[in-house]
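Subject: Putative oxidoreductase structure
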Amino acid sequence: MTKSILVTGGTKGIGRAIINRFGEEGFDVYTCSRNADDLAALAEDFKDKFPDQKIFVKQADLSSKTEVVEFSEEVKKLVIPDVLINNTGVFLPGAIHSEPEGNFELMMQTNLFSAYYLTRAFTADMIERKSGHIFSVGSIAGLTAYANGGSYAISKWAMLGFTKCLRQELKDFNIKVTSVLPGATYTASWEGVDIPIERFMKVEDIAASVWAAYNLSPFSVVEEIVIRPQLGDL
């Protein structure tokens, strides 16, 4: 039976790289994004590369609980994924004491609440099936405080706590849970900055790490993947 992966925010960056990596391994894909044109381009590219596999795409803004629930319900009509990747995220720089009003709410809703509600939508079925692997894509900002991190860092610290709790809740049901904590990775968030590209990690390296963690035997789990640029944090 073909295995399946659900990746939120799958049209760019880390999400796109994970879709490509698991696609190479024969997985069907279920994903979402806010941009319909990007989703159409992703679906076309995936079908060209992997004509024997399925891809389901849906336009959704996961900062909205309603749209998280709608997306999850549509996917559940089709499949309970073997792998769930909570990857949707947004970064707005700023200090806690001075960042624009609304930054905190937007980043918590997008970076944390989306993962909470989406995970809850699938865990009961995974528990009944007694299998699954849930990855939460956080950040080293969830490990180390830094200037101008503001609400983004708060959301990523909370994401790490969420994932640790989930690991304890689900381990007895043969469901693996892994936190992915990347440093500076060259994605759209960094476009235009005056920093040499070789100072960044490649999205393909994050995807390879996720695949390696997934591919262990049932007797082991990677609880945290901390991956940084070779020359250190930016």
